[in-house]
Amino acid sequence: MDFTTFQKSISAPLPPAGASVYLQALWHDAQDNWKEAHELIQDLPNKNAAWIHAYLHRKEGDLWNADYWYKRAGQKRPSGTLQEEWEQLVKAFL
Predict the structure, then answer these.
(1) Which of 16, 27, 33, 25 is nearest to 53 (CA)?
(2) Residue 2: CB atoms within 10 Å
(3) Which domains occur in the chain, in start order?
(4) Claim: this prediction has a pTM higher than 0.90
(5) How far apart are CA 76 and CA 79, in angstroms?
(6) Alpha carbon of 58 to those of 3, 15, 79: distances in Å?
(7) How high is the pLDDT of residue 17?
(8) 17-34 burial: b if 16+ Cβ within 10 Å, else e
(9) Given this model, what pLDDT does residue 90 score?
(10) In what helix (H) or strand (E) does residue 31 lie, and over which residues does it extend?
């Protein structure tokens, strides 16, 4: 799957078959379902999940919490837009 195919899948009722939990979380986020996205990754104990977790809290506006998760992910809070970060995340996990 490529980025364009993933973007197009957002209009579908379910995430793409075989999508990783990371892509599923980003898919739900793109459908404005922050809660489902957060539930999918909040308890995963790895840097990939921490990076998405950070992005979700940044989107929520909870920058203190976001910065905690960016640190756990080994990332810095980006200065770009949320859309740019979402695209970066999707591309990283494809």
Answers:
(1) 25
(2) 9
(3) 18-93 (1.25.40)
(4) yes
(5) 9
(6) 22, 23, 11
(7) 94
(8) eebeebbbbbbbbbeeee
(9) 98
(10) none
pLDDT score recorded for residue 55 = 98
**Residue that has been written with the tokens 């986020």 in this structure:** 29
* 78: CB partners within 8 A, 6+ apart: 84, 85, 88
Structure tokens at 6: 């993933």
**Can you tell me the distance from the alpha carbon of 88 to that of 82, in angstroms, rounded to the nearest whole number?**
10
Tell me what pLDDT residue 30 has.
Answer: 98
Rounded-to-integer distance, Cα 1 and Cα 65, Å? 32
The token pair at 53 is: 């977790």
Q: Which amino acid is present at 91? A: K
Q: What is the pLDDT along the chain (94 residues), one digit of tens a residue?
A: 999 999 999 999 999 999 999 999 999 999 999 999 999 999 999 999 999 999 999 999 999 999 999 999 999 999 999 999 999 999 999 9
- CA angle, 48 then 54 then 84, to 5°: 90
